[in-house]
Fold this protein.
Amino acid sequence: MEEQMIKVTPIPTGTAELKFAQQCGADGRSALQRKLDIFLDKRWVGPWPILCWLIEHPEGRFIVDTGDTARTSVPGYLPRWNPFFTKEVHIKVAPHEEIGARLHDMQIDPRRDISGVILTHLHHDHTGGLDHFPHTPIIVPRACWNAYSGFRGMMMGCLPQRWPIWLKPQLIEINGPREGSFASSYPITQDKRIFLVPTPGHAIGHASVVVRTEGLTYFLAGDATYTLDNLRQEKVDGVTYDSGVSLATLKAIKQFALLEPTVILPTHDPSSESRLASREIYRDEQLLQAGDFLQRAQTPV
C-alpha cells in the first residue's frame, strides 16, 4: 500500500482553557485529591486546541472525536449544578468552528462522506459535534459507554443528557491481537492499518487510534496525555480515576513509540499540528543520550 493513500489531517474545533492541576496532577496525590486540587488551583493554561482528526484511507474516511459545540456558550447547556463545567474549564467554540462546518470547508459532507466516527472517550469536548453525523456509524469502546452513559457520565464531564436522541453506537471490545506494547487491539479497517488500543486512565475505557502507514505510524492519543512533554515525563493528569492505570498507559505509549517510528498526537497539545506537519517522531531523550554515550565509548580514538 502506498503511503499517500493514507492521510491524517487535524481539524481544530475551538479552544479550551483549563487549570494547571487538571493537565498535570501532583505526584503522590490520589484520584480524589487530584480533583480537589483542580478546584483549588489558581493557575490556568491555554487556550489549547480541541482537535479532531480526519483519516483518509482506501476503505473510507474516518473521523476521530467530534470536538465540542458552540452551544456550550448558551446558558444552561453546561449544567450549573456541576461547577466543574462552568468554573474549572473554559470552552470557546464559534459556530463555524464546529466539526460539521470545518468538514464543509474541506468539501466533505458529514452526512454522506464519512465511513465512521471513532470516539476515544465520551467527555463533552470529544462528543459535542455528534449532531453532525446522524447517518454515520459511531464507534465507542464498550467499557467507556458502560461507565459514562448514565448518571456517572453526568458527574464526570460526559453530558450524556446532551447526546443526540438517535445515538446508538457500535460498542466494541478491544480484545484483538497484541500490537507492540499493547496486549490487545481492535481493527477498524480490513487491512488493519487503522486500529484501536486501550489507553485507560484519563477515563474508563479510553482508547487511542493508531494509523500505520508505510514507514511511519500516527498515534492519535485523545486525552491519554494532554501534551507530549507530560508523556515524556510520565506526568499523570488531574482527571484520572486511577493514577496507577494512567501511568501504565503512559509507559505503554512510550514503549510503543520506541518500537516503530511514531508521531504522537494528543487532542489538546498545542504542538500536535506542527508535529504532524513535520512528521516528528517520538524519541526518548534519555535513551538517545545513553545510545550516544555507548556509541562514543565504542568508537576507536
About this structure: The chain has a mean pLDDT of 92.
